[in-house]
Design a protein that fits this description.
The protein has about 425 residues and is α+β, with helices and mostly antiparallel strands. The protein is built from 17 helices and 16 strands. It has helices at about 40-45, 70-75, 80-85, 105, 110-120, 130-135, 140-155, 160-170, 175-190, 190-195, 205-210, 220-235, 240-250, 260-265, 270, 275-295, 295-300, and strands at about 15-20, 20-25, 55-60, 65-70, 95-100, 215-220, 315, 320-325, 330-340, 350-360, 365-370, 375-385, 395-400, 400-405, 410-415, 425-430. A hairpin with a 5-residue loop joins strand 12 and strand 13 (about 395-400). This is BTB domain-containing protein.
């Protein structure tokens, strides 16, 4: 038997506590309920896909015909709605429309059309671009979002080949989230890209986009110079050497090189070429000026600044001071490391640091103790590179620039986002001028 609730609001709940006993309370008959039968609705809709029954339009793509239903097409796509229900097409003219699609879209038009009836799509890395382009062309927002999500997931590091393949599509179709993921994966694997045969086929826009980034992971700036020299002097780009040199060479951060590397540039083929010599001469002068003035810039001229991106380091693996195994059983470890003094790159490492690691599950705490840098204080930017078993970077944790007085300690915390595949963690200490 039901017990009446004294409070009408309690009638929304079929159960009520009463002296540790639950008593059934009748539901409020006036309360509305929302009932759904999505599965049967989709199933009933899907049975009409490419069926002659009740069709009122035929779509022809690359000679292949598909039976369609104008209402289904129009409800999913405002492009189809305008095409089928506005003045540009009328039923009296024809019941068949020929659609002109790019080759990559022709092969996947059937799964695209099926999605409009079934709300599901079978997709792979080979078909993703075609389906995405169709979703973009016909403004099927839900399918476009699904494609972008799939591609972002498949373009995560270390999948650099996917990132390279989808990067131009992300730019053309104005997909910022996909573009960010592709750019990140390429940047974290930039040395692999630089050493690959495909480097010579990279277009100018791609190079200008990437070279402006401080997030490129590579051994040092000189290997980037060598890659740029190969690209600029190849037969396909040699005709535009002067223009390309003026655009690209200022993006190579010569101040981040050591003396013998700068001297090697003075002996290079590009330096001897009159079409690029003036540009290189100016850049080398800036690099040497940085080396001369940066160590004592406050004494020479307090307002002298080397804050331009040209004077900032990238993620150079040569600046790695230590690395640890992510599965190290030790919860506490301390190491002594050395790096060069100040912000001017040097082969001589005389600055002493102590690094203390504390591990708690997948969380890491690092204490950076500035023991003796030869300067009153050190200005550094610590970066942690998380790598998989093959040594490829799958996560980068970058701290802000730290100003650490000699004899003091700064702390940083990081967590492995994907501990299942993260095998090693490398600490970079990047001296910065500003």
């Amino acid at each position: 038997m039901y017990r009446m609730a004294s409070d009408p609001e309690q009638m929304d709940s079929p159960l009520e506590d009463d002296d540790e006993n639950q008593t059934l309370v009748p539901p409020n008959p006036a309360r509305e309920a929302v009932l759904r039968d999505e599965a049967n609705f989709i199933q009933n809709m899907s049975q009409f896909f490419n069926q002659e029954m009740l069709h009122d339009i035929i779509l022809t793509v690359d000679g292949q015909q598909f039976y369609g239903h104008k209402f289904v097409l129009a409800k999913s796509s405002d492009v189809f709605r305008k095409l089928l229900y506005e003045n540009c097409w009328s039923e009296e003219k024809s019941k068949e429309i020929t659609l002109s699609e790019a080759p990559e879209c022709q092969a996947v038009f059937e799964p695209f059309l099926r999605y409009l009836y079934t709300a599901e799509v079978s997709i792979s890395t080979d078909t993703a671009v075609g389906i995405l382009c169709l979703a973009d062309k016909y403004n099927v927002a839900s399918l476009k979002d699904l494609c972008v999500g799939f591609m972002i997931d498949r373009a995560r590091s270390p999948a650099v080949s996917m990132a390279l393949m989808w990067y131009p599509w992300a730019k053309v179709l104005h997909l910022p989230d996909l573009l960010h993921q592709c750019t990140q994966t390429i940047a974290w694997n930039f040395y692999e890209v630089l050493m690959s045969p495909g480097w010579m086929n990279m277009d100018l826009d791609f190079l200008t986009d990437l070279l402006s980034s401080s997030e490129l992971v590579l051994p040092n700036e000189f290997v980037l110079w060598e890659g740029m020299e190969r690209w600029l002097l190849q037969e396909g780009t040699l005709d535009n050497l002067q223009e390309n040199s003026a655009l690209l060479l200022p993006m190579v951060r010569l101040p981040m090189m050591v003396i013998n590397q700068l001297y090697a540039i003075e002996s290079s083929e590009l330096y001897e070429n009159p079409l690029s010599k003036d540009t290189l001469h100016s850049l080398l002068s800036k690099a040497y000026r940085f080396r001369a003035l940066c160590p004592s810039q406050a004494k020479v001229e307090p307002s002298l600044s080397f804050c331009d991106i040209f004077y900032q380091p990238r993620e150079y693996t040569d600046l790695r001071v230590h690395s640890v195994s992510m599965h190290n059983s030790m919860r506490l470890n301390q190491v002594d490391v050395r790096m060069f003094k100040g912000a001017v790159p040097s082969d001589v490492h005389e600055a002493d640091w102590k690094i203390t690691y504390r591990k708690n599950a997948d969380n890491w705490n690092l204490q950076l103790y500035c023991h003796d840098t030869g300067l009153p204080m050190a200005r550094v930017q610590p970066t942690l590179l998380f790598c998989c078993d093959e040594g490829k970077v799958i996560q980068v944790h970058r701290e802000k620039v730290l100003v650490i007085p000699r004899g003091t300690t700064m702390s940083m915390n990081a967590m492995a986002e994907n501990p299942a595949i993260t095998k090693h963690m490398a600490l970079l200490l990047k001296p910065v001028a500003c």
